[in-house]
Specification:
With 334 residues, this protein is of the alpha/beta class. It folds into two domains: 3-101 and 298-332, Rossmann fold (3-Layer(aba) Sandwich); 105-289, NAD(P)-binding Rossmann-like Domain (Rossmann fold), CATH 3.40.50. The chain is built from 15 helices and twelve strands. A seven-stranded parallel beta sheet has the order 8-7-6-9-10-11-12, sandwiched between helices. The protein has a five-stranded parallel beta sheet with strand order 2-1-3-4-5, with helices on one face. Strand 3, helix 4 (65-69) and strand 4 (76-79) form a beta-alpha-beta unit. Helix 2 (19-26) runs parallel beside helix 15. The two termini are 31 Å apart. InterPro entries: D-isomer_2-hydroxyacid_DH (IPR050223), D-isomer_2_OHA_DH_cat_dom (IPR006139), D-isomer_DH_CS (IPR029753), D-isomer_DH_NAD-bd (IPR006140), NAD(P)-bd_dom_sf (IPR036291). Pfam families: 2-Hacid_dh (PF00389), 2-Hacid_dh_C (PF02826).
């Protein structure tokens, strides 16, 4: 390759790309163009000029007609983040430029977080931790707190969404003897079985599940899919976990549902995000907010840089790319 242009701010680059990943990338091209200062329109144009490959991430500019004119030989864009929608333009699609996303790296973290939260919420860890501060202990003790403890065995887990995170979550659940339900209109009943789940309607899923995990994309069809109707159908002692986007949950309907019954909720995302100081979500005793950490955080972000270097090596050698995005399905992706 003649040139790889890294169209990302230095602060993002240092969080996502370790020195070893940058060194691997530099060996793949005659020039690895890395910005030393925050990106500007002029700086972005200079960086991408003459490049065959471009690397983007959070806060990168959209690759519009003007920028693409600077790189007529651009063949591939590798997005060192999840959704490619902020950087993909109609001009990029029209030119047939390949696009790679690191969503698979982020989805692995989301799925592992989903499994961890499923286990600890069923185990009633937070209630127990609060009560032990006052001296309570639950070994061989029978009371209301202990009666809420459940194992990941013989329960029903509902997964909403079979994108990359949803599929990884379903894969992890295969290690447990549980009944797994899936709602995803893009997945057939046969495909769901291969994923280890049974395809059902959203109404059946929320009514039957002990844990409902939301991993669907943020698209118009999923706006407030967790609403008055679906929340009312949930079991009284069920657990709702949202690791997707805040807009998928109608928070006012959720507040009304929490006023009746003992539903428990874990939200990694809210709408708006973050909720303002003093917001009811911050203080409700049956709501846990985890601050949008389900994906990759701190050292986990460096796995993204390694993945991008891996993909560039595969591209250079003509191998299949594991993170290539089908832009014809962009409207269905998160």
């Amino acid at each position: 390759m003649n040139k790889i242009a890294m169209l990302l701010n230095p602060a993002v680059r240092s969080r996502v790309f370790a020195a070893a990943a940058l060194e691997r990338m530099s060996r793949l091209a005659n020039e690895l163009a890395v910005p030393a200062e925050p990106l500007s329109p002029e700086g972005s144009a200079a960086l991408i000029r003459g490049a065959e490959a471009a690397v983007t991430s959070w806060m990168s500019p959209q690759l519009n007609e003007e920028l693409l004119d600077e790189a007529p030989d651009l063949k591939i864009v590798l997005h060192a983040a999840g959704s490619v929608k902020p950087v993909v333009s109609e001009a990029l699609q029209a030119r047939g430029i390949r696009v790679v996303s690191a969503a698979s790296v982020l989805s692995r973290g989301v799925a592992e977080t989903a499994l961890g939260l499923t286990i600890v919420s069923l185990k009633n860890i937070w209630d127990i931790a609060d009560r032990t501060r006052d001296g309570d202990w639950w070994n061989n003790r029978a009371d209301e707190t202990r009666s809420r403890i459940r194992e990941l065995f013989g329960v029903t887990i509902g997964c909403i969404g079979a994108g990359q995170a949803g599929r990884r979550y379903l894969e992890l659940l295969r290690h447990f003897r549980v009944d797994v339900l899936l709602y995803d209109p893009t997945v057939s009943a046969e495909q769901a079985v291969r994923l280890g789940a049974r395809s059902v309607s959203l109404e059946e899923l929320v009514a039957a599940s002990d844990v409902v995990t939301v991993l669907a994309p943020e698209i118009p069809a999923t706006y407030h899919m967790i609403n008055e109707r679906t929340l009312s159908a949930m079991k009284d002692d069920a657990i709702l976990i949202n690791l997707a986007r805040g807009s998928l949950v109608d928070e006012q309907a959720l507040r009304r549902r929490l006023e009746r019954g003992s539903l428990r909720v874990i939200l990694d995302v809210t709408d708006p995000e973050p909720p303002p100081s003093g917001h009811w979500l911050r203080t409700h005793p049956r709501v846990i907010l985890t601050g949008h950490i389900a994906g990759a955080v701190n050292n986990g972000l460096l796995a993204i840089g390694d993945f991008i270097a891996d993909e560039l090596e595969r591209y250079r050698s003509g191998e299949a790319l594991t993170g290539e995005v089908d832009l014809l399905r962009l409207h269905l992706l998160a």
